TrEMBL record, chain A:
The keyword Membrane applies. The keyword GTP-binding does not apply. This is ABC transporter permease. The chain crosses the membrane at residues 12-34, 54-76, 97-123, 143-165, 170-191, 265-283. Keywords: Membrane, Transmembrane, Transmembrane helix. It comes from Lentzea tibetensis.
Length: 290, 281
């Protein structure tokens, strides 16, 4: 079955790996070129500001694109063409047919995207100074480290499961996009700030590249107060001092980057396993082939 | 070795919208070519798909060569050719044969290749470029490459031109004669099956209407032609009148007073199919 699945999927697998390889090559070049600028932030920003904008765009879209193109047609197109009847009336079991197809189509692209995320983390290190908000903030967190592979795993298993349930490639793609984008936003805003207990400090004391997750105004006693800079005629700091008010922030320090990456990747991996379960259920209970 | 190819007991398949099969009990003997006849939607495909394990029945049971269809793929001794002859369009014929070999431990490569050569289809042709007849021959070669004891063909001749129909049928019958395979062949074109099949299973509305050895069934039935005033015998399947004359198909021996003839397979099947339609309507 492995050969059959590979023969069916090879174009899509090789194309995905090709795209990833080109991007990885660009990233490697960027790293060495940026290092040659000797840490001159103005120069780095001038040369790579636009690159970073496009890179964010491409790398946010890539997991859903590659995951979906691998997963959505995997079963849905077979059902559309009736070829699943061929596969399932040979001497191999239904589970093996399903698992082999999942493995052959999914594993290469998930590994490739994970490698790409690691390459980008390595490549972006010299550019970090010009990236707004540090590595933990959206969208920098999403495009490097382990997340790229984890997001691809999710979109792949999601579109494969939906393809089995809805038996329609296009519908599987639409559902994947419709579920994935809000999911990513919800995780970044609702869950990620809580991956670790935030550190509280005065606004002036937050370290470089920290990710500010909460901000409030407190008086000398530490009670929260409301403060509006609207009626302030002097500088905001002067007004704050005059009112005895301090801006207090909660932040996640940059050195939590890899543990946050691991937590987020783990979260998406758990979701992916659940989706595989849905797919297995659909395979045995719902796949009516009349 | 079992002498029963398919053994169905109260086999029932209920879909969300209506019935696929209702309480079907029958046995198909091995070593025969059985015709599965019925109108579209009668349950022919449902029956075959249950036997392969593609579908799980909602009631009753079926045994294929003594074994219930399981989860481990289709019974190794059973080959199934679906109506639309599903093959991977992007594969070449050679690659399709390789797929057959990879998916079936009992694969007979020499035999499958011989069937492809006999069909005169180039090995490097893409499956998507083949004509309907060629495609059917390749699908048949792959089905038979598993060296099945029982082969089930769902409407194998539909959408083929008359020449291709003849070629496919000849090729199939030659292999059956050589190997002694049991065949279950479905069609709604009864003329295709006449003279080929020696066993009959007639389905309508998901129920078994008629079932048995073709020669026995023909001997047990008569077409009666006579005046419409004559008394009808017992066992009338269908009676039609035109003017003063009545034409009756009945399960009976010769009836005095009528003009008695033995029906052909087509006449027999059509009479049963029309009679079930009238009851349903």
């Amino acid at each position: 079955m492995t050969w059959v699945a590979w023969r069916q999927q090879r174009f899509q697998v090789l194309l995905s790996i090709g795209i990833v390889a080109v991007l990885a090559a660009v990233m490697a070049f960027v790293r060495f070129d940026a290092l040659s600028l000797g840490g001159n932030e103005a120069l780095i920003d001038e040369r790579y500001g636009t690159y970073l904008n496009y890179l964010r765009l491409v790398l946010i879209a890539l997991p859903v694109l590659l995951g979906m193109f691998a997963g959505a047609p995997l079963f849905a197109r077979e059902i559309e063409h009736g070829t699943h009847v061929f596969g399932l009336t040979q001497s191999i079991g239904r589970t093996r047919w399903w698992a082999t197809k999942i493995a052959v189509a999914g594993i290469p692209v998930v590994i490739a995207m994970t490698v790409l995320g690691l390459v980008n983390a390595w490549s972006s290190a010299p550019l970090q100074a010009v990236m707004f908000g540090g590595r933990l903030a959206t969208p920098t967190f999403e495009i490097q480290g382990l997340t790229l592979g984890a997001y691809t795993l999710l979109t792949f298993t999601l579109s494969a499961a939906i393809g089995l349930l809805m038996r329609n490639t296009l519908a599987a793609m639409v559902v994947t996009v419709v579920v994935y984008i809000p999911l990513l936003g919800a995780v970044a805003n609702a869950l990620r700030p809580g991956y670790g207990t935030p550190i509280t400090s005065r606004y002036q004391d937050i370290p470089r590249d920290a990710w500010v997750v909460e901000s409030s105004y407190v008086d000398a006693a530490g009670n929260q107060v409301s403060f509006s800079p609207a009626g302030c005629t002097a500088s905001i700091n002067d007004c704050l001092t005059a009112g005895g008010v301090v801006q207090q922030v909660a932040y996640q320090p940059d050195d939590r980057f890899w543990s946050f990456q691991a937590i987020e990747a783990g979260l998406f991996a758990v979701l992916a396993v659940a989706l595989l379960g849905v797919g297995a259920w659909a395979l045995h209970r719902r796949l009516r082939l009349a | 070795m079992t002498t029963i190819a398919l053994d169905a007991t109260a086999l029932t398949m209920r879909y969300r919208r209506g019935w696929g099969l209702r309480d079907c009990t029958f046995q198909l003997p091995t070593g025969r070519i059985s015709a599965l006849i019925g109108p579209n939607g009668a349950g022919k495909s449902t029956l075959m798909r249950i036997a392969t394990g593609l579908l799980r029945p909602t009631g009753g049971s079926i045994e294929v060569l003594g074994e219930a269809p399981g989860k481990r793929g289709t019974n190794r001794k059973l080959a199934f050719l679906a109506q639309d002859k599903p093959l991977y369009k992007g594969f070449t014929v050679e690659e399709m044969l390789k797929a057959g070999a990879k998916l079936n431990p009992d694969w007979d490569s020499g035999y499958a290749r011989r069937l492809v050569r006999e069909a005169d289809v180039p090995f490097d042709a893409k499956v998507g470029t083949l004509s309907g007849g060629q495609r059917t021959r390749i699908a048949l070669a792959i089905a038979l490459g598993r060296r099945p004891e029982l082969v089930m063909l769902d409407e194998p001749l539909a959408d083929l031109d008359p020449i291709a129909r003849q070629e496919v049928m000849q090729s199939l019958l030659a292999e059956v004669a050589e190997t002694g395979m049991t065949v279950l062949l479905s069609s709604h074109v009864i003329a295709d099956l006449d003279g080929v099949c020696d066993h009959l299973l007639l389905l309508a509305d998901g129920r078994v209407q008629l079932h048995g050895d073709v020669d026995d069934l023909l001997t047990q039935h008569r077409i009666l032609i006579g005046s419409r005033e004559l008394v009808l015998p017992d066992g009338v399947v269908e009676a039609r009148t035109t003017g003063r004359q009545a034409t009756v198909l009945a399960r009976t021996t010769d009836v005095p007073g009528w003009d008695n003839t033995e029906p052909s397979l087509e006449e027999l099947a059509l009479a049963y199919l029309r009679s079930t339609k009238k009851v349903a309507a």
